[in-house]
Amino acid sequence: MGRQELLEYLLKEVEKFGFSVISNETFPIPAIVNTDNKIMIYSSVEVTPFEIAHELIHIINKDNHRGKYFDAINPQEVRANHEAILLLWEIFEANGGDYEYFNVFINITDVPFELAESIVKKEYLEMHEAITEIFEDEIKVRINKQEMHDYIVDYISCFDIIENVNIYQFLDCYHLSHNFFNMAEKEFRLLLGTN
Questions:
Q1: Helix residue spans in 17-112 (DSSP H)
Q2: What residue spans of the chain are helical by DSSP H?
Q3: Largest CA distance in the chain
Q4: Residues 97, 86, 94, CA angle at the centre, nearest 5°?
Q5: What's the angle, vertex CA 111, arms to CA 110 and CA 115, rounded to 5?
Q6: pLDDT digits over 43-62, tens only?
Q7: What pLDDT, in 10s, does the model give residues 119-158?
Q8: pTM of the model
C-alpha cells in the first residue's frame, strides 16, 4: 500500500466514526479533530499518514481535552502517538511488510523514526519470541523417544568409527531444537554403551 492509498484508507476510517472530514490547503497544522462536534480538518499539503492515524486514535479513544497540538507531556497525546504507530504497523504487516522493510514503513507513514523503532522493535521481538516458544512447544510434543532413537541410529550409521559425538551438530543436522540436548545425550549414551 502506497502513501496516498494509506491516507485515503485512514480518512475513510475517520468517516466511519461519523466524522465530517474537511481538507484545506491553508490550514496551519497538518490535522486536528474535535470529538465533540465530530469534525476533522486537515491540510492537504502538510498531512501525513501518521498524523491522520494519530487523530484517528483520538477519535477511537474519544479524547476531548488534549491541550496544545502534539503536547508531549499530555497522556492522551503520548497514547495517541503510541497507538497510531501500532495501527500503522498492523496495516503495514497486513499488506506484506515486515521488520526487514522498516525504512519503507518510515517513508510511507512519516512516523517519528526513534519512537517507531522503539515501539515496533519491542512488539516485533515479543511476537517473534512468542512464535518461537509456540514452535518449540509444538516440536516437543511431536518428538518422542522412538523418533529420537531413529534419528540417532541414522546419524551414527554414517560413520565407520565414532570417537566422540557433537550433540549440537547432530541436532542441527536433523533440524531439531537444542532443547532436545538431554534427550539426545541419553540416547547416544545408551546406543554407544557409554553409560
A1: 49-60, 75-94, 102-109
A2: 3-16, 49-60, 75-94, 102-109, 113-142, 145-156, 167-173, 181-192
A3: 84
A4: 30
A5: 155
A6: 999 999 999 999 999 999 99
A7: 888 777 776 666 666 555 555 545 677 888 888 888 888 8
A8: 0.63
